[in-house]
Design goal:
The protein is an alpha/beta fold and 271 residues long. The protein has helices spanning 3-14, 29-40, 54-66, 86-99, 127-151, 168-171, 177-196, 215-218, 223-232, 241-251, and strands at residues 20-24, 44-49, 76-80, 107-110, 160-164, 203-207, 263-264. The chain has 10 helices and 7 strands.
């Protein structure tokens, strides 16, 4: 095979042309980078958001301006969704399909998450903090996984699910009990679902970022506390959302089709 043909063949494995992706929390720190990256690979992206619509609308406008074409369909749309509400999750999937002309759905990425910025010790963790963590991080992921298991395309082996865990599951840092436990639930559900989807061609994997420079990371931390995380990092810096998005792009592409039921520690070597 000629060099140019080989390069084109390899590149094609990573492209997502014609596929429809849903990204929950898609206007947040990592979610925004994922939404932009998937769009750059050719996917049409439903950006899920909750609360203030401005960041999602601005992100969608930017994506559509960058990837303008002659089609009447946009490259991205914003859809409000509280992922802890089953009715809203179903509506998110319906809206994603409808926005792109009733298209099949191919990709789900669940980045929506919450964290108590006061970082309470377990002995001081309120039921409200626990319920919030499990309501969004675990229940929200469960509802999205359930919908995806019934809705993602089973043709051509292109159905892809990527959930988001955290390196905090293994680090056992004080103050992260409820959050880490909710993310451990995400890992377990993802692995079980991957096996339950045997024969469908749909893969399910989790990405577990380390300390990443997002509003969620900086929330409630002093400059000194944030600096300690940097000092502990083997690569001498925090991760950035743009470090995480390409891993998601790989996992949802044809190139990543043989990776299944895994938790990818995309963390720069942090524990």
């Amino acid at each position: 095979m000629a060099g140019s043909d080989a390069t084109a063949s390899v590149t094609a494995q990573f492209m997502l042309d014609g596929r429809v992706a849903i990204v929950t929390g898609g206007a947040g720190g990592i979610g925004s980078a994922v939404s932009k990256h998937l769009a750059s690979l050719g996917a049409r992206v439903a950006v899920g958001y909750f609360g203030d619509p401005t960041p999602a609308r601005e992100l969608v406008a930017s994506i559509n301006a960058q990837h303008a074409n002659n089609s009447d369909q946009p490259r991205a749309v914003a859809v409000e969704c509280d992922v802890s509400d089953a009715i809203q999750v179903k509506a998110l999937f319906d809206a994603a399909s409808a926005a792109f002309g009733g298209a099949e759905l191919h990709i789900l990425v669940t980045t929506a998450a919450v964290l108590d910025y006061s970082y309470p010790a377990l002995a001081d963790t309120s039921e409200r903090t626990y319920d919030a963590a499990f309501g969004v991080n675990a229940r929200g992921t469960f509802l999205c996984l359930r919908e995806a298991a019934n809705r993602l395309s089973r043709r051509h082996g292109r159905g892809r699910i990527v959930t988001f865990s955290s390196s905090g599951v293994g680090s056992l840092r004080p103050g992260y009990a409820a959050y880490a436990a909710s993310k451990a639930a995400v890992e377990t559900m993802t692995k079980v679902l991957a096996r339950e989807l045997r024969g469908t061609g749909i893969t399910a994997n989790a990405v577990a970022p380390g300390s990443t420079g997002t509003p969620m990371f900086y929330g409630g931390k002093s400059e000194e506390e944030a600096a300690r995380y940097v000092a502990e990092a083997p690569l001498g810096r925090l991760g950035m959302p743009e470090d995480i998005a390409p891993m998601v792009g790989f996992l949802v592409s044809d190139a990543g089709g043989w990776v299944n039921a895994q938790v990818i520690r995309c963390n720069g070597g942090t524990i």
